């Protein structure tokens, strides 16, 4: 590798790229990373972190309402959007600094510029030619928009984080987790919110009970959730925007957010010319070790369109570093990845949906429980919680745990470890619960449905 400027050149200092850079440098490699925008990538700047802060902001509305049942009187409530945005920006700037320090302290050369691949070992970076024994593509993904008349009036999630004003009326278009989360954020902040999804039910790929349960909980909160509904065109009208739906009906709003999917960021960075094979969606095709069709070019994270989540990108980044510089070919493990939807109420999930489990395991037992959390006996809130376990009958292993309810992400993270260890239903049954919690329901469900 001595003939090259670097042992590894990483394009993109997001979730995956930063981890791959740091681990590779710690293993003794000479590493550079190029970043054309903010350090930390989508998750830190335009994704997980600011979104979760907004979710917290939105949840205060419930908290204030719920407080009354416990004897609190809260007068003069008001919400100031610009305070939230400014405080969020301060935290993101702090995180950008943390990422910078992590890279510099690890001895990684940080180049704040756009990089382009020239050939298997050469890159163009800020007008310079740089060579590397290995190149890692960690460029992430970006929102995609349908081509409909007036789409230029719509926003994507990137823009929400810097809106000058909170709109009074919003239409959210899309049925993935990002659309669901933003609909919940806007609704919680007091914005009149309509969510449209063209399919029969949102959150495709999630367990059907979770999808139906969340839809009914969102509707119970008076969020205008419409399925089999899509926008045909958008026009500017006095006082806002007008969306004409495919059924001819019309809706007016101050803002229309499109969260209808993301595409891998592979265009215009020289990949095709370098011979890197892309799949039909434009993602870099990689093997089990994250190596592309060009042996010296690797790819991780959203740009490979495997499981598009931050912890997965980080894991893939570590694996590539270990493969290249740790002396151990390390395949990322994409099984049993838990995830959350920070909706209101939230979803936490690990393992296959009931339909997918039935297909994979054949004979399964399903345990399901719905209940009203203790807290809501005093708040008067009708919100219910759903918990579900799926057990492979042949081995007694719990193969999936799903939940809709307060703290679902926090709760499922713990159970994900048990599932990773191969816990059986008998072991769940032998576990004594923590009382009174909602989570104890996961170890007290005795009768399959
Ligand atoms: C609104 C939203 C909410 C999300 N919420 C969650 C969540 O709650 N939990 C979760 O796990 N995941 C969440 N995600 C997904 C998560 O953000 C991504 O899966 C993750 O960021 C992918 O990491 P990555 O390293 O592949 O790419 P990124 O983090 O996107 O990093 C790619 C980096 O490459 C840079 N780059 C691109 N091209 C070039 C170039 N040519 N030269 C130099 N630099 C370049 C980009 O500027 C960017 O900084 C969310 C995403 C969005 C959009």
Describe the 3D structure.
This protein has 449 residues and is α/β, with parallel strands linked by helices. It contains twelve helices and 21 strands. Strands 1, 2, 3, 4, 5, 6 and 16 form a seven-stranded mixed β-sheet that branches. A five-stranded antiparallel β-sheet has the order 17-18-21-20-19, sandwiched between helices. Strands 10-9-8-14 form a four-stranded parallel β-sheet, covered by helices on one side. The mean pLDDT is 97. The structure holds flavin-adenine dinucleotide. Flavin-adenine dinucleotide (FAD) binds at residues 11-17, 34-37, 41-43, 46-48, 51, 114-115, 138-140, 157, 178, 265, 269, 301-303, 308-311, 313.
**Strand percent estimate:** 15-25%
Indicate the structural class. Answer: alpha/beta
Ligand names: flavin-adenine dinucleotide
**Beta strand count:** 21
Major sheet summary line:
7 strands, mixed
Q: What sort of overall outline do the alpha carbons produce when their principal axes are compared?
A: globular
- Which stretches of 5+ consecutive residues score pLDDT under 50? none
Radius of gyration: 24 Å
Q: What's the overall average pLDDT, rounded?
A: 97
Number of helical regions: 12
Helix proportion: 25-40%
Distance between the termini: 60 Å
Q: Would you summarize the structure shown here?
A:
The chain is built from twelve helices and 21 strands. With 449 residues, it is an alpha/beta fold. Strands 1, 2, 3, 4, 5, 6 and 16 form a seven-stranded mixed β-sheet that branches. The chain has a five-stranded antiparallel β-sheet with strand order 17-18-21-20-19, sandwiched between helices. A four-stranded parallel β-sheet has the order 10-9-8-14, with helices on one face.
